[in-house]
Amino acid sequence: MISVVWPVHSAMRQYSASVDSSKWMVDRTTRLSCTLSHDVPYYGEAIFSASASKNKDLTFNLDMVIRPESYDFAGLESVPPSWRAGMPARSMGKMSLLKKFDGELNNPIAWEMLTELEKGYQPTFYYQDWNNKHDQISVSLSSVNFKKSYWEFLQCRDNLLPYSFEDIAFVVMNYRKNSSELTQSSRKRLDMIGEYLNNDPNIDSIYISAYSDSYGAKNVNLNLSQKRAMAIKEYMASKGVPADKIVADGFGEKRHVAINTTPIGREANRRVIIQISKP
């Protein structure tokens, strides 16, 4: 339990949306991220967000127009609505205040804030004003008009891709022997990359490098690796990536990663490496 003790003769400056001005907005333009935002008049914005990943974890950001001038913390309480007058507020924890940064909270407490809002309570932050030692600040998130947007946000989060950019930024895939056809598991990885590219217009460049094992003539293996690289490039371009952002090279038998005397080693050498970068 966190107890906040205010100095004697202190004043409380309160920021919250009124019943008429309380709005919650959902941004769901792609399958890569979802945000649920709430404007706090004359203070800033409260933003819940989730990003494409395996766990789709939740984060909370308190975007302040005036950021902290010192290092401190804000107490966080769940304040009952006016129609439950007389019920005590419940402490939920605290949020670190870092100099020149917005306030942030991670997955567990962010979810707890959402469930309190769903019940009609108001998560409220309390802290000492860093610009006036005689004032305290309270910042409340209104639960008015929350539920409909919250449900839309949950649906958006459920539809996020179950992997992130980091999961597809560097990928090694393998080919079948004497073929430009990917193995079944590698085709699944390529489809995953393609699905991501369909949702992210901010790809800066893609570098594709293909290699072969050492069975067969060197020129044949070189041509085969180049064919493999170009096939991947054409696939990427079909997903909307500008062709001038894609570089594809075939290196044939160069740069082996395993010996060629075993089937397992040769399969490892029949590979294509995809490296994707963003600005």
UniProtKB/TrEMBL annotation:
Domain (OmpA-like): residue spans on this chain: 163-279
Record-level GO cellular component terms: cell outer membrane
UniProt keywords, alphabetically: Cell outer membrane, Membrane
Alphabetical list of InterPro entries matching this protein: Bact_OuterMem_StrucFunc, MotY_N, OMP_bac, OmpA-like, OmpA-like_sf
Coiled coil (UniProt feature): none
Pfam families per record: MotY_N, OmpA
Subcellular location: Cell outer membrane
Keyword Protein biosynthesis listed: no
Principal location class: membrane
Keyword Cell inner membrane in record: no
Protein name: Membrane protein
